[in-house]
Every structure is written in C-alpha cells, then in structure tokens.
Design a protein that fits this description.
Elements: E1 7-14, H1 18-35, H2 37-42, H3 47-60, H4 62-67, H5 71-77, E2 79-81, H6 83-95, E3 100-105, H7 110-117
Parallel strand pairs: 1-2, 1-3
Helix pairs in contact: 1-3, 1-5
Length: about 120
C-alpha cells in the first residue's frame, strides 16, 4: 500500500482577486453539478444544496446556476482564490495523504496557475 501513489484532479481557479477566482470556480461547479448529478452526489454534498443549482441551470442557464454556488461549496469542490490561498489548499490535500495533486486550471487562469503553483 505504501507504494501506491495517491493522485487527485483538482479544478483550480487562481487569481489576484480571491472573490473573482472563486466565481470562476462557481461557474465550473454550477455546470459540473448540473450535468453530472451522479458524480456530484458521490462528493457527499447535500442534495438540498445541489437541487437549486441544477434547477437554475435548467431554467435560466449557467450564470444563474453559478449564482447559487456559495464559497463553502467552492471550498469543498475546487481549489480557488489567490495564489497563497490555492497553495494552502494544495498543502491541505497533501497533508490529507494526496501525493500528487493534479491542478486543472479553469477558464482564464492557466497562465497564473502555471506561474504560481507549478
């Protein structure tokens, strides 16, 4: 077991403005939880939290769904914020036993993610 390398893919939105980065992650979470509810349920998120996001997505689109994603859900399902905040989240994953956190930069955050988290 000690020879098994633990990896995890992490949707990541890094930016100079923490709130703006978290809103980028919220858009991804709105899409992800709406299109893949079976996977979203597997994360252990309360269905009562997911239902209004999916309903908003179905009725009004992605922006409406993203508005229903709060920072707590962003914290649970993504790595988002300033470079320092993102590094702290990655460190928390490592402390929990992840050997290789695989950072997957979200829309418009690739360059800063590579510059600050690589």
């Amino acid at each position: 077991v000690d020879e098994i390398e633990v990896t995890i893919g992490l949707a990541t939105a890094v930016g100079d403005d923490s709130a703006a980065a978290k809103r980028i992650a919220a858009r991804w979470i709105g899409l992800y939880t709406s299109l893949f509810p079976n996977i979203a349920r597997a994360t252990g998120v309360d269905p009562a939290v997911l239902a209004p996001i999916a309903q908003a997505f179905a009725e009004q689109g992605l922006e409406a769904a993203a508005e229903r994603v709060d920072d707590d859900l962003v914290e649970r399902l993504a790595v988002a914020g300033t470079p320092d905040e993102c590094r702290a989240r990655l460190d928390a994953y490592r402390a929990a036993g992840v050997d290789v956190p695989v950072v997957t930069p979200l829309e418009g955050t690739f360059d800063l993610a590579v510059e600050t988290l690589a």
